[in-house]
Amino acid sequence: MPLNMRFRFSPAKDGLVKVLGPLETDIMQIVWQEDRSTVKHVHRSLSQSREIAYTTVMTTMSRLAEKGVLNRNREGLAYVYSPAITEDDFVQMVVHQVLDGLMDEYSDTAIDYMVDYLARNNPAELERLHQTIRARTNI
After folding, report:
1. What is the pTM of this model?
2. Could you tell me the mean pLDDT of each successive run of 10 residues in the chain, 139 residues long?
3. pLDDT for res 6
């Protein structure tokens, strides 16, 4: 199933909560770690750290399946969920979508800011960017 992921990008938040809600992120972390899981197992895991209704977990996991982030297969009376995409591939997809959106509309500003940001915060990565540009342009 192709990803049908529409998300709000919240840059002030941490980690995957930038693009998934906090509960979605927690659920995905569990399923990525377990590789296969049921609502019951995920609910049990989440209940150890907070009070949460089983139906809330069930609805959220169903929505993640509708978005194409989780696969859902019926096994007996329960659905078994598995990741439709690895965590690394999900992060890569999000980065591509965010940067595509910025580059399509604001390429000059985005490039200038990225270079300035790296110069201030991570000169080693700026040098890596420089090396990559040279390698790809044969300079």
Report:
1. 0.80
2. 63 86 94 96 96 97 93 94 95 88 92 94 95 88
3. 64
Residue 38 tokens, joined? 């049921």
Q: Which is nearest to 81 in space by CA: 55, 59, 61?
A: 61
DSSP string computed for 34-70:
HSSB-HHHHHHHHHTTS---HHHHHHHHHHHHHTTSE
CA gap 53, 43 in Å, rounded? 8
Distance CA 83, CA 30 (A): 10
User: Which of 1, 68, 75 lies closest to 40 in space, CA to CA?
Assistant: 75
d(CA 39, CA 94): 25
